[in-house]
Amino acid sequence: MRVLVIEDDRETAQFLQRSLRESGHAADIAGDGENGLAMAREGRYDVLIVDRMLPRRDGLSVVQTLRAEGARTPVLILSALGEVDDRVKGLRAGGDDYLTKPYAYTELLARIEALARRPAPEEQATRYIVGELALDRLSHKVTRAGESIPLQPREFRLLEYLMKHAGQVVTRTMLLENVWDYHFDPQTNVIDVHISRLRSKIDKNFAKPLLQTVRGAGYMIRDGAD
Amino acid sequence: MTALIRLLSSTPFRLTLAYMGAFVVAAALIVGFIAWRANDLLTNKVVETLEAEVTGLREQFQAGGAERLAAVVAQRAGEPGSGLYLLVDATGRKVAGNLDRVPPELAGTDRGSVFNYARTAPARRGTVSRLAVGVPLPVPGGLMLIVGRDIEDLHRFAGTMGQLGLWSIALLSILGIGAGLAVSRSVLRRIETITDASRTIMSGDLSKRIPLDGSGDELDRLSESLNGMLARIEELIVALREVSDNIAHDLKTPLNRLRNRAEAALAHPDGAASHRDGLVKTIEEADELIKTFNSLLLIARLEGGAVAESMGPVDPASIVGDIAELYEPVAEEAGLALETSAAKGLGLVVNRELVSQAVANLVDNAIKYSIDDNRPRSADGAARPKIILSMARVGDSIEIAVADHGPGVAPQDRERALQRFVRLEKSRSLPGSGLGLSLVAAVARLHGGSVRLEDNAPGLRAVLTLPTRAIG
Question: Sheet harboring B126-139: ordered strands across?
């Protein structure tokens, strides 16, 4: 995918560009808000990474302008500000996701991949299938190899989110935000315990594990090669 | 010399001077007015007497002619007192009276005037000049009558009074300035002690206090509240120092660990695989550090208090329920039972995220401190130690309590446990930043509530109180 990084700190921008290229994505850099806006308007990008504080034009204003012009390119807002209300402001301005500095590159990568492949609301599938695992969003039924698996409501939402992003790394923070709607870091890794519970239900009695732990990043569900 | 200048330019002294000035002007005005009125009154009295006399003499003349007038004048002039008379004929020769001659001030005029006359003074064997007032009165037949009054005594009296007034004003001024100086000096001396004390404090000795004289007056009370302020500042600085010591400990230790890991991985002879392993661990350490920094920043911001915008109506039961649901598997994993009881139908206006985080921290702590490594973990639910998460309305507040059967916190440590970075000795070995409870306290303060730690006999009961005001 093509990513536009609008970031005024050269070193950060170049690190992102290099890392994104190594992850197999194309990345361009814009060093200020005006340039960033002009480049984003060309519409060649799948995802925009926008720093909040930019010279010449503030990051939020870039996003607001693009949204006002009807551009629907997914935007990840990066911010060094950690104010309690900042996330709300960022999302209200038209950002699709919000990440506070300092962040882990794996977190950023997982998030922009999730953003880029996010289907438009009307295209959302009613059934997710990964290998022999199937989840029906309407009837709330989960089956593996035709065998029904009973899940708690939260376990269902957890699996639903993982399957929606099948084949992609999903971080613990992303799960906490999207499944539980919490934006704080719990001191204990509560997510791991929930994942292991879910895993015991969907993978325990089967030879091939679907729910995998990606070390240093998070989790991924896929009908993998290994 | 500088002390004198300081004294003279002190506020109390300047106030005294201003006060004195106003007083002297007022006194001078009053004395002047009284003198003027008294003079007026006495003059009128003299004029009235003269007029009566003139009327009387005119009647005598009309009744008995010039001879009778001369006789009456001669008789009256002989009487002791202050009456002055002179009757002269057309040639200016004295006919009768006790004045020797027509005073020049009254010659050739028909208006009354003040004049000087000579009077024999037996004590001095000569004459003295005295002040008098008189009117010339032409009498038919070419005669001239002068009737007057001696006002020398009155004049003297007025003069004495005037001088007395001036002297008293001068005396009062001197006394006033003296008193002003004395008052200024004592006030100045006390203010100097305050100034000296604050100089010492400014130069770094925070334990110095302003001495009190125990009089309980406004300077004493000012000193007392300044001392209170100083005590608070000292307390804060000590707390700050403690915090920075704790930061040094709690951030330096993981930083050092991080560095050691990286170094060890680099030095490892196995190459790529162990480098990779070392890097993964390094990143994990770095993430923990970032978490600690984020918590610190969040607490600082909450203490700045500016998130009113993101507050909204929330059902506290859903906050408690969601957190319980999040932590229930964690508790179970740790061999504990997390039980929840939440009152229904209540409302709060809070920041859901922050209150959830606060409750999560309390539950997290309860789980962390309930884990007993010596106790075998059994799958038997009944035997597992309980953590009870409850929410109920108490008066105008909602109390969210987390009770555990862990080691608890000693009563004397409870206050300290809520402070930033404070980790009671027993917990130093457990993971965590030591910011959990202080974040809870900061969230509580932001919402106008409080946190308290209680004895759960055995264990700890942490209670987060949030006021329900602003719910319609």
Answer: B94-97, B83-88, B143-150, B126-139, B113-121
Minimum-distance CB partner of B353 among A100, A183, A188: A183
Q: Please report the ipTM that was assigned to this predicted complex.
A: 0.81
Q: Is B227 left (phi over 0), alpha (psi -120 to 50) or beta?
A: alpha
Percentage with pLDDT > 70 across chain A? 94
3-state helix, strand, coil split of chain B in percent (to 5) is: 60, 20, 25
Question: Distance, in angstroms, between A81 CA and closest chain B CA?
Answer: 10
Number of domains present in the structure of chain A: 2
Instruction: Choose the closest CB to B310 out of A88, A102, A194.
Output: A88
What CATH number corresponds to the domain at position A60?
3.40.50.2300
Q: Which residues in chain A (66-95) have CB-CB distances under 8 A to chain B? A: 82-85, 88
Which residues does B contribute to its contact with A (CB < 8 Å)?
280, 283-284, 287, 290-291, 294-295, 297-298, 301-302, 306-307, 309-310, 322, 325-327, 329-330, 333, 351, 353-354, 356-357, 360-361, 364, 367-368, 431-433, 436
pTM, to two decimals? 0.61
Closest CA to A216 of B466, B280, B412: B280
Select the highest-mean-pLDDT range: B91-95, B247-251, B292-296, B421-425: B91-95
Q: Which residues contact B398 (CB under 8 A, 6 or more apart)?
A: B316, B346, B348, B391, B392, B465, B466, B467, B468
The pLDDT value recorded for residue B23 is 84
Beta-carbon separation of A84 and B290 below 8 A: no
Mutation target for B interface from A108, A173, A187, A197: give the one with most B CBs within 10 A: A187
Cβ neighbours of B287 in A, within 8 Å: 104
Query: Which of the four pLDDT bands, split at 50, 70 and 90, describes residue A158?
Result: very high
Give domain status of residue A226, yes or no. Answer: no
* B267 has pLDDT over 50: yes
Q: What is the pLDDT of residues B300-332, one digit of tens each?
A: 777 666 566 677 888 888 889 999 989 988 888
Q: Which of B261, B279, B285, B287 should we substitute to test contact with A (largest number of A Cβ atoms within 10 Å)?
A: B287
Q: Which of B269-278, B281-290, B377-386 has the lowest mean pLDDT?
A: B377-386
Which helix (H) or strand (E) segment holds residue B59: the answer is: helix B11-78
Which of A65, A84, A116 is where one domain is finished?
A: A116
- CA-nearest residue to A153 within chain B is B325
CA distance B304 to chain A (A): 11
- Structure confidence at residue B382 (pLDDT): 53
Secondary structure string (H, E, C) spanning B310-335 = HCEEECHHHHHHHHHHHHHHHHHHCC
Q: Which domains can be identified in chain B, with CATH numbers?
A: 11-159 (3.30.450.20), 212-304 (1.10.287), 306-467 (3.30.565.10)
